[in-house]
């Protein structure tokens, strides 16, 4: 057991070093991403602006001069397979002096045209290299004018402004007026950047905690298994603390040796790690060591209670050891029950995602527009909505609907509370139901053919009309005004220049059925709307397809294009690319499943696997706690149990108190699971766990009693 305890603590020491490394790595990444942030810094977000970059640069320089503000634009650009963070700005003279960086070489910038970076940019203007602890976060700090000239002229993005608080409102007002955006819009982000240590970090933390609990159980049982050795020490006059040291010396020294041996290995693996990193890691390991000593004092409690008089009487009171074991068992079981609802939801989610994966696999013969590249100033015009690329791509797709039977589909879940957003532009009738929700699909005739939808309404009635056709289930007949207004707002949200009247929307109906239709939307799959029953179809002919052509520029799995993967259709795609001059845009048409969902499935499965692994580990600890409790009982009451078994006492009567304690733990767990989650899956998992625990307990009792009975009948102790 001593070797097992030493190995266990050594593993915890290694896991602690790994977890600490992941934590520091995350801190390092966050530091480089937010390096400019100070107490007087705030962010603004420029969106969909058509202002020329040179005019915007002059405005920022004017604000810089007037208010003494530093203004920094943040961009993340992939170059040579790596993401490089660019912090380009208009800086005050003292900005770099207050930057909390450690330089690997060079000096801090002193003029407005000098650069600072964590990598070698091979630029003459780079005067210093920032030390990067893990050498994995490329950062370039440069003047905004240089960024516009060498990287991108797109002014849209995230900006950090560092100025005195009294000037904040004046600066926001000036930018709001210049960009023609409201202040609320200017300070509101439409995305969120988060930093996390990742799954491995949390798994190592949980695994370390689990191993420490096992160590705690071992500390309780370890002295019980060494009573003869403790007796010898006591007879030789050793004090309790000296006996504790002799029993635990090797156990506690092993992880220290492992940690010291790992330091040069870590330095070789990560040569950029500095002394400060190892000092902090040593402090963490010291806390772990002190904690292990604290847990090992459970051994000292047993040693102190085992007196020479107990030894001579061949008697020892094991109640404290038992009580500690029961408390640990109770704590473990409570922790185990806490994992069940999460595991239940993970299992349910994984089942649903596998259904979605099967639906995507059924479409493995179809390709979508997985990616494309914008050339020249294409990004700027693309963001402004004036891109020639958009127009060429739309024209190419319209050709493919004829030559390659290209399908178009976009699915959404709609709550009619959103109808009120357009009431100022399109008058909303009084009979519109503003409290209903439904799934709907924007589709063209080619995709509708693929659905093989059984309806008395012909395809021509749906797609050959001049008006917009909404195809809805008959159960929504009472909501025709709502459907018409919904159609009007759909067109207006796609193109605000088109304001349709209710007469321009035609609603047709089909009989409700139980046919499940795959939404083909990753977002809806995540929101538990992967499949629709009786959805609303927005039928798009050529006229309305062009209105929704903006969706064509979404990439990978969100792209609405669906084309059968055949040699003939590949030729049609290549001809379209050449016809509309899209060769330089590197359009990639790939299998729908391979264009994003496969990665999502893998991420989700890894998450589920982690939770299953955690559950299995906690179950193992629960079993171990039961095992050590039974060992303690069998050792402390072996003569009593032997006599009762010989006299024919039933199993329940021999272990009456123990069964009562275990039943109380199970009842508490049942109440806990009913409070946390009343789902059938959670209850089923809990019942299985209890049955497994009971089965293992009975099996251990049978094996240990049989072995002990045989030993005692032979007259052995």
From TrEMBL:
Domain of life: Bacteria
Residues that span the membrane, as ranges: 200-224, 251-269, 275-301, 322-340, 609-635, 659-677, 683-702
Keywords carried by this UniProt record: Membrane, Transmembrane, Transmembrane helix
Identification of the protein by name: DUF1430 domain-containing protein
């Amino acid at each position: 057991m001593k070797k097992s305890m030493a190995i266990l603590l050594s593993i915890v020491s290694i896991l602690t070093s790994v977890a600490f490394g992941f934590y520091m790595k995350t801190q390092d990444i966050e530091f480089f991403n937010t390096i400019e942030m100070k107490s007087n810094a705030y962010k603004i977000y420029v969106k969909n602006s058509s202002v020329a970059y040179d005019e915007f640069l002059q405005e920022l320089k004017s604000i810089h001069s007037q208010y003494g503000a530093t203004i920094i634009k943040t961009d993340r650009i992939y170059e040579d397979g790596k993401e490089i963070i660019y912090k380009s700005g208009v800086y005050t003279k003292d900005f770099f002096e207050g930057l909390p960086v450690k330089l690997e070489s060079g000096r801090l910038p002193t003029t407005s045209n000098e650069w600072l970076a964590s990598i070698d940019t091979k630029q003459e203007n780079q005067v210093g290299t920032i030390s990067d602890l893990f050498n994995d976060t490329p950062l370039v700090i440069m003047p905004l004018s240089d960024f516009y000239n060498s990287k991108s002229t797109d002014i849209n993005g995230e900006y950090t402004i560092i100025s005195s608080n009294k000037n904040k409102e004046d600066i926001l007002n000036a930018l709001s007026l210049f960009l023609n955006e409201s202040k609320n819009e200017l300070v509101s982000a439409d995305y969120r950047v988060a930093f996390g240590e990742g799954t491995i970090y949390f798994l190592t933390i949980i695994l370390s905690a689990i191993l420490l609990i096992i160590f705690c159980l071992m500390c309780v049982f370890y002295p019980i298994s060494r009573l003869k050795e403790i007796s010898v020490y006591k007879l030789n006059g050793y004090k309790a603390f000296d006996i504790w040291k002799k029993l635990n010396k090797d156990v506690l020294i092993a992880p220290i040796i492992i940690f010291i041996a790992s330091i040069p290995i870590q330095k070789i693996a990560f040569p950029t790690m500095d002394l400060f990193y190892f000092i902090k890691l040593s402090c963490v390991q010291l806390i772990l060591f002190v904690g292990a000593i604290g847990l090992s004092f459970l051994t000292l409690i047993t040693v102190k209670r085992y007196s020479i008089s107990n030894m001579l009487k061949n008697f020892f009171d094991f109640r404290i050891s038992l009580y500690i074991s029961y408390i640990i068992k109770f704590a473990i079981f409570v922790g185990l029950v806490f994992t069940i609802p999460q595991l239940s939801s993970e299992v349910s989610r994984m089942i649903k995602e596998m259904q979605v994966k099967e639906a995507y696999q059924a479409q493995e013969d179809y390709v979508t527009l997985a990616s494309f590249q914008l050339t020249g100033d294409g990004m700027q015009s693309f963001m402004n909505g004036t891109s020639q690329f958009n127009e060429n791509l739309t024209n190419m797709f319209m050709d493919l609907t004829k030559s390659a039977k290209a399908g178009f589909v976009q699915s959404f879940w709609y709550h009619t509370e959103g109808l009120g957003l357009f009431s100022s532009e399109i008058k909303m009738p009084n009979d519109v139901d503003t409290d209903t929700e439904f799934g709907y699909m924007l589709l063209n005739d080619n995709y509708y053919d693929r659905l093989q939808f059984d309806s008395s309404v012909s395809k021509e009635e749906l797609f050959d009309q001049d008006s917009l056709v909404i195809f809805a289930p008959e159960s929504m007949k009472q909501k025709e005004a709502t459907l018409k207004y919904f159609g009007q707002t759909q067109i207006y949200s796609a193109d605000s220049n088109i304001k349709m009247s209710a007469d321009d929307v035609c609603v047709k109906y089909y009989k409700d059925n139980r046919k499940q239709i795959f939404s083909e939307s990753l977002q809806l799959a995540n929101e538990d709307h992967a499949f629709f029953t009786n959805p609303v179809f927005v039928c798009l002919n050529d006229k309305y397809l062009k209105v929704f052509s903006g969706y064509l520029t979404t990439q990978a799995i969100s792209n609405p294009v669906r084309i059968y993967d055949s040699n003939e259709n590949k030729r049609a795609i290549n001809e379209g690319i050449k016809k509309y001059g899209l060769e330089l845009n590197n359009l990639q048409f790939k299998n729908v499943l391979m264009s994003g969902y496969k990665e999502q499935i893998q991420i989700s499965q890894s998450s589920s696997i982690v939770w299953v692994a955690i559950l299995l580990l906690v179950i193992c600890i629960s079993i171990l706690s039961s095992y050590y409790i039974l060992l303690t009982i069998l050792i402390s009451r072996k003569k009593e149990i032997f006599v009762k078994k010989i006299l024919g006492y039933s199993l329940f009567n021999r272990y009456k108190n123990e069964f009562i304690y275990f039943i109380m733990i199970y009842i508490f767990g049942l109440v806990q699971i009913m409070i946390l989650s009343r789902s059938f899956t959670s209850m089923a998992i809990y019942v299985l766990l209890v049955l497994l625990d009971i089965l293992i307990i009975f099996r251990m009792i049978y094996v240990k009693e049989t072995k002990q009975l045989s030993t005692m009948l032979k007259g052995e102790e």
